[in-house]
Amino acid sequence: MEIKFKGTTIQTSGDFPKVGDKLPEMKLVKSDLTELNTNDLKGKKVVFNIFPSVDTSVCAMQLNKFADKLKHREDVALVFTSLDLPFALKRFCTSKGIENAITTSDYRYGDAHQLGTIMKGGPLDGLHARGVIVTDENLVVQYAELVEEVTDEPNYEAALNKV
After folding, report:
1. Domains held by the chain: number
2. What's the whole-number mean pLDDT along residues 52-74?
3. Is the model's pTM score more than 0.85?
4. Residue tagged active-site, from 59, 63, 119, 134
5. Does 59 qualify as catalytic in the annotation?
6. Which CATH number fits the domain that encloses residue 47?
7. Those residues with Cβ within 8 angstroms of residue 68's Cβ, 6 or more apart along the chain or in another chain
8. Region of residue 121 (left: phi > 0; alpha: psi -120 to 50; beta: else)
9. For 5-50, how does the pLDDT look when each residue is reduced to its tens digit (9 = 90+)?
10. Please, what's the b/e burial string for 81-113 (b: 16 or more CB within 10 A of its CB; e: otherwise)?
């Protein structure tokens, strides 16, 4: 797919999921180094966020805003993934007091590559682009946004309306 980074067109590695698709099974590494299998999230709605790095301002805002908006929703699993190491994700959440997000790293297995979000070219070549997927309790996609301009925030309102 085609997206932009600071106005320059770049490609992603494949097709981003669409509404009606099933979230692919992925194995990711949580901040405590244990594994999360996305199939284990069945039974809850899922807000699944993909982003380049927690050490950028837009990614940090994305994590903070979703965590704040969903902090009282026990029926929702709020998951974030990037290629950041689990230690960076844990440091960020600890420093911001975020306790309701499941931060995961795709560094070990590369399973989130199935989402078609790896940027090909540009200064962030090899990192995930920015996207949001909202699923129902059976992991069927209800909302899918691959953000057209990587440096922009996702449409929080549209995503949260599907939760």
Report:
1. 1
2. 88
3. yes
4. 59
5. yes
6. 3.40.30.10
7. none
8. left
9. 999 999 999 999 999 999 999 999 999 999 999 999 999 999 999 9
10. bbbbebebbbebbeeeebebbbbbbbeeeebbb
